[in-house]
Amino acid sequence: MKNLLENESDLGSHPVFHGLVQDDQSYESISSESIPTHPLGIKPLGNLYLSQTPNARRNAGSLQALPDELLMPMFEFLDKTTLLRLSSTCKFLHAFCRSDELWKPLFIKSYVRNPRQFQWLGTWRRTLLKSTGGRESSVDCSNVYSDVLHRPFACTYIDLSKYVHIPESNQIQRFPDLSYAEFAARWSSTPFILTKCIQSWPAFGSWDISSLREKYAGVDFRAEAVDWPFSTYCDYLYNNVDESPLYLFDRKFAENMGINIGRENNGEYWKPDCFGPDLFELLGDDRPAHRWLIIGPKRSGSTFHKDPNATSAWNAVLQGAKYWIMFPPNVSVPGVYVSEDSSEVTSPLSIAEWLLEFHADARSIPECLEGICREGEILHVPSGWWHLVVNLENSIAITQNFVPKSHLSSVIEFLRDKPDQVTGFKDNITNPWALFHKRLDKYYPELKGRAIEELKVKARKKRKWDFAIGTDDSVEGESGGFSFRFGGDDLEEE
Ligand SMILES: O=C(O)CCC(=O)C(=O)O
Ligand SMILES: [Fe+2]
């Protein structure tokens, strides 16, 4: 047998999948039985060790010198015609040029430029080629070894049941319902799930994917960058092989479906009483976007983020089930990289990759909370909490963001001190903080005063702390000279 290790450049490494993997073996955390053969025959890189057939990479000309991790982003610059041409040069490049990760953005770009009727045909490539008059060939790529190409395919077979066995100590608390007094006194900074809170909503029990399809087949909903008729989105939902499925996340659903919201309006749903007054209601129509209809297939979901403008949120599941993993605001979440001013969150991984690579570490962080929010249940996301969500089944949810009295100071701080990170306001609202400030002064002057005072105390503490650890000397004047503040001088005593 040829010593395949003589050419080290054949082998690469990937942060998620290491080592030898055969069709009858398993990637770590994806059980072997559940991964079928890749439709083109592409194999994980580790299989090269045992392979006796020639490596297709050898026929890729000078491109063979580049790692797969570089080829893929380079090919993202190619248009449809060039991808098709390149795909007919050799099997190795054919395998790359067939990747739907390249065809999805091409379809979306072409659709956004030219929205049109089309039929979803199971893959982005097939759908784009059909709708623009191309064709699809079948090529055996069984001597192509690449984690970059095989991994997204394998990730679509991730066994989510592994994550839903939640250790007792990490369980998000569950209650039938809560009163506002209980929420305000104890629960506004803690995630929880209510199991008997939304049963009286007309939407509960009557909204499922097929009933919505019957009623709203021709109505457009926003899914990431595209607006698709609901019937098209359903075709996609039931028949796609994407590692990160397109997620319907629509904030104009109420207008477009022609439904009412609110108990007093005979609405399809209303906000639960337990969260109390929502201070962004003071902004009337000028409040930032705050409600979304969320629909997606199993495996779709939301990668780690904090909700906008330091708002809190609730998320009610009308069909399906969602797995949530959450961390308090100051915890650094494994695999999630945040810029110095928190303006950018980089989580370079898909949900499946994050689960495979980081979930075990994350779960062992003491502050980690996890829960499954099932049909008929509603989950509370406190202001500033990190969360990742994955749908365990095809799901429908409604979410609303709000500002409870107990988090007013966080929202004021965000609007006032991070104006460049404020999102969701209409373009004509040039100074959201000034507007909110004015409304608070009019309707809740005392509450606003207390929140501002809280922020002053917090800022003073932070200055003292920065001074104590040597990153700020502006306190020197105030405190009359340098002193170590560890031990004895309790910062909490302010
Ligand atoms: O249902 C989900 O995917 C979570 C949605 C979410 O986190 C959000 O709307 O901020
Ligand atoms: Fe969120």
UniProtKB/TrEMBL annotation:
PROSITE patterns, per the entry: FBOX, JMJC
One Pfam family hit: Cupin_8
Segments forming domain JmjC: 260-419
Lineage: Eukaryota, Fungi, Dikarya, Ascomycota, Pezizomycotina
Originating organism: Zalerion maritima
Cited InterPro entries: Cupin_8 (IPR041667), F-box-like_dom_sf (IPR036047), F-box_dom (IPR001810), JmjC_dom (IPR003347), JMJD6_ArgDemeth/LysHydrox (IPR050910)
Gene3D superfamilies: 1.20.1280.50, Cupin
Gene Ontology cellular component terms for the protein in this record: nucleus
SMART domains: FBOX (SM00256), JmjC (SM00558)
Name of the protein: Uncharacterized protein
Domain F-box: 60-106
Origin superkingdom: Eukaryota
GO molecular function: cis-regulatory region sequence-specific DNA binding
